Amino acid sequence: MTNTQPGASGQTEKFKRVPQHIGVIPDGNRRWALDHELAKHEGYAHGISPGMRLVDLCAQYGVKEVTFYAFTVDNTKRAAPQIQAYTDACIEAVKAAAERGYNVMAVGNENSKFFPPELKDYANKRVCFGDGKLNLNFLVNYSWKWDLLHIDGSGASAGNIENAIASREVSRIDLLLRWGGRQRLSGFLPVQSVYADFFVIDEYWPDYKDEHFFDALRWYQDCDVTLGG
SS3 helix, strand, coil % of the chain, rounded to 5? Predict the structure, then answer.
């Protein structure tokens, strides 16, 4: 089946293969802020609108699930203004997603003081809105160690690890997009990303353009998806 939608330039884009689940690492907020003569913490607020634009585009093209890397346990070592800024951005993004009718889940250590109280209702469980046209996950105060430690004592067999981790409600990633030019996972969902195709965008996240999404989908058409087989 070919998915056809208007592209960023107004032309029609056609894709025979569309990933079911896209992971997003929206990196470069602080570098973008410094380039614009702002304080580092001021960059995060500029990433909310691009995020919603990308999710809306994913929904239009038939993507079923999107996961954003919001902030990690390691990020909580940053200066207080930055912690507050990205926390506020997470809360605003979840509110915007709910208003758009997406099914929202915040995946992370909800027992930590760094997990926003405003997102407790979404903590590691999916809350459905509207017609549920897309599942949208935010990794909030997430750590791959926290995720995998849930395997201990669960009795999970080697072939059933994906059902024993803390993030087990998140499906396997097909395509992982990272803004900001860095070529690393940074601990992003190690189990679900095991066979993900990885596409890097050099521009910083607040400079998101629809064309980045289309470039990634064009590249994805020729990816050899074998899942190791």
Answer: 35, 20, 45
C-alpha 186, offset from chain centre:
13
Domains of the chain: 15-137+147-181 (3.40.1180.10)
> What CA–CA distance (Å, rounded) separates 94 from 83?
17
Amino acid 7: pLDDT: 47
| 125 vs 218: CA distance, rounded Å | 33
- From residue 29, alpha-carbon distances to 25, 44, 94, 127 in Å are 11, 6, 18, 28
Cα atoms in the Cβ-side hemisphere of radius 13 Å centred on 75:
27
* Per-residue model confidence as pLDDT tens digits over 8-43: 444 467 899 999 999 999 999 999 999 999 999 999
Helices (H) and strands (E) in the chain, counts: 5, 8
Q: Say if residue 45's pLDDT is above 90.
A: yes
pLDDT at 12: 63
